[in-house]
Design a protein that fits this description.
Blueprint: E1 4-5, H1 7-13, E2 19-23, E3 26-31, E4 34-39, H2 41-46, E5 52-54, H3 75-84, E6 92-96, H4 102-113, E7 119-122, H5 125-131, E8 157-158, H6 160-166, E9 172-176, H7 180-183, E10 200-201, H8 217-223, E11 231-235, H9 241-251, E12 257-260, H10 263-267
Parallel strand pairs: 1-7, 2-5, 2-6, 6-7, 8-12, 9-10, 9-11, 11-12
Antiparallel strand pairs: 3-4
Helix pairs in contact: 4-9
Length: 279
Amino acid sequence: MDTLVSTQWLENHLGDADLVVLDCSVHTEQTETGFQNHSGRASFDSEHIPMAGFADLTKELCDTDSDIEFALPEPEAFCAEMGALGVGDQSRVVLYDNSMSAWAARVWWMLRWVGFDQAAILDGGLKLWKAEGRALSSEPAKHPNRKLTCNSRPDVIADRKEVMAAIDNPAISLIDTLPEASYRGEMSIYGRPGHIPTAINICGINMLDETGRYLPREQLEAMYPADRNSRQITYCGGGILASLNAFVMTRLGFTDVAVYTASLQEWARDPANPMSTDG
């Protein structure tokens, strides 16, 4: 199974015994003070792709005791939650969401983090599935609890200390995946305007076309001129859009990609962490 599958592929394989489909949707609303994220479970309960379960990034799949939104849980806890959703060592998993595939990409990256590589993202997500008139259901999937072995890859996650060191290390590339206006400091969502010094801007939204599908490979290749074997760290506000970029980069053959999952919600609130509006 490829890491990116079409709606037709998924429809053809929905009955496969080893296939687990997970809706990863989170609803985001803009308020006067920023953005607020809410679980997509209510929408899932109303309608979802047949045979899908719900992977809740706002609850079971994050550390709810952390003051960082969407903070990573312990790897073993994440594996246990995925096992409860029916994901085992021999499973294949297809992930989707109701937005830009960034939430699905975050779960894909977390599965990569614990050493599970049989996961794919649904190209176009729920939006395209519905636009094509494909079947929907309000019945959740019923999978037995399975064992997902944790073979953690800590190198695919970056922390504040590594990012700080990367600022003065030309061998490591920092990639800001937020919109250009945020990168330049023209809008501020996370307390202080701008970006982490030396970071370049490759916005995750630009990875997709108007239907929500990923752009052709040659167009994506042109966005990433860096050495495919050098260390790359992506970040955004909370490590969600950054996971979309990391997913694309992995498909393009980058061999050493990490996501700074705490991203600007951690970085920008500490005045000891530098910010820049240059570039």
